[in-house]
Known about the structure:
- This is 4-diphosphocytidyl-2-C-methyl-D-erythritol kinase.
- 26% of the residues lie in helices and 28% in strands.
- It has a single domain, classed as Ribosomal Protein S5, domain 2, CATH 3.30.230.10.
- Helix 1 runs parallel beside helix 2.
- The chain is globular.
- It is an alpha+beta fold.
- A hairpin with a 4-residue loop joins strand 6 and strand 7.
- It contains eight helices and eleven strands.
- Strands 2, 3, 4, 5, 6 and 7 form a six-stranded mixed β-sheet that branches. Strands 1-11-8-10-9 form a five-stranded mixed β-sheet, with helices on both faces.
- It starts with a strand and ends with a strand.
- The site of 4-diphosphocytidyl-2-C-methyl-D-erythritol has 18 residues, from strand 2, strand 3 and helix 4.
Amino acid sequence: MSFLEDAAPASPGAAASRMAWAKVNLTLHCTGQRADGYHLLDSLVVRAGVGDALHVVPAEDLSLTVSGTRAEGVPTDARNLVLQAAEMLDAGAGRGAALHLEKHLPAAAGIGGGSADAAAALDLLSAHWGVPLPADTARLGADVPVCLTRGPQRMQGVGEVLTPLSALPPCQMVLVNPGVDVPTPAVFSALSDKNQPPMPDVIPTFAGFSDLIDFLREQRNDLAAPAIAREPVIASCLEALSDAALARMSGSGATCFGLYANAAQAKAAAHRISAAALHWWVAAGPILAA
Length: 290
Ligand SMILES: C[C@](O)(CO)[C@H](O)COP(=O)(O)OP(=O)(O)OC[C@H]1O[C@@H](n2ccc(N)nc2=O)[C@H](O)[C@@H]1O
Ligand SMILES: Nc1ncnc2c1ncn2[C@@H]1O[C@H](COP(=O)(O)OP(=O)(O)OP(=O)(O)O)[C@@H](O)[C@H]1O
């Protein structure tokens, strides 16, 4: 089980570090489809207080090593979004950096693990090399622009249109992943109605936890039904979170989140679910305010 307290501090030899916080889609409405096949979205996105950590030390060449509880199977070559972000930023200039990724988020899990790592790499290396961020970071992945922001965001377009929202009331979250990879393209393809209603034009400022929950209850994750049809265990994750004020799936799955009013409730739920489903990944922490 992972908690915010487990988040890796800057490693002793690192010149600089960044956290790559999990991205959670509190809502995910699919409102259309572009001619190139990408889907138009309307999503309320937050960061959970659990994530990967990326460290850099100066070096002649560009390199990446990976450790951590979820390091198994994560590529260390050019397939890794951290190195793709570095190459994008370097633009062929041949700059070096020794990068080390502490991987704690499951991959292909709907919480943007790879996208958050790419955003952390862009932010870290932009400062380390003294070069500006490129404009078209969505080329690395539709979730990369939102992972470069802090605080709650309304995400529209195919992921590149971002509107910062007022801070949410304090809210604790439990994340549960049953260990099945859910490929994003397959879930989008299986979505039968791609023209569903957006969120309201104006997202209100929430006075307290119960106002936030009341609002979210009226919203949807349109990818939940096709994801559950592919992987029915996702419904079991939602069932395991049934003591939460609200339980939904994030992104294209399979990770589900439960929202709780306080940390004691969230930790109790996380312990209960971990004990009952030993092979599931379970994490608890606050929604990050900024
Ligand atoms: C489902 C979300 O996680 C919601 O935040 C994102 O839209 C997906 O973000 P991502 O994994 O960074 O997406 P990408 O790596 O750019 O795209 C993976 C695949 O998802 C599908 N895709 C993604 C984003 C989008 N707006 N429409 C899509 O149809 C496409 O088939 C694409 O080939
Ligand atoms: N830094 C990285 N960490 C994890 N996986 C990576 C990384 N870089 C590349 N990958 C590859 O990308 C794939 C998808 O990873 P990622 O965690 O971004 O997907 P996701 O959880 O589906 O994100 P989303 O929330 O956008 O659906 C993995 O199968 C993995 O092989």
